[in-house]
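Batch manifest, entry 17 of 40.
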Amino acid sequence: MAGGAVRLLLAALLAALPAALAEPRLRFRPPAEAPVRLFTEPELARYDGQQEGQPIYLAVKGVVFDVTSGKEFYGKGAPYNALVGKDSTRGVAKMSLDPADLTHDTTGLTEEELKSLDDIFNNVYKAKYPIVGYTSRRILNEDGSPNLDFKPEDQPHFNIKDEF
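Output type: structure tokens
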């Protein structure tokens, strides 16, 4: 009796095999990529660490990082709070919290400051904090046209031509 049951099960499986092979194969999709988010200066300013429960964002070289996990450094009253809610590229390069240095402008920085900027950008911010978007200044030209040289830091598949 047991042998008959096994033969019956085997026959049923073999009968279903051609149908199973004829059906399209399921394909697993890779996880959805996080979208590229564009931040204007006023929008980025909303993420300055002043409101409890709100993410804290900091931009360096036009790349917006979520530094909320470093709230003790970037939150309200913290030592580096002056850097958040804006593109503080110059301040990071010069290791300065002077309000005049808290800007995207890198004009006049020394080679040493530019090297420091790249080191901190790659070895601190990109290594430690997630990228949540880019400043409009990084993605768009002054006239509002797309910057065709834009290359996202974390999304090599991204093509700016697809966005416009």
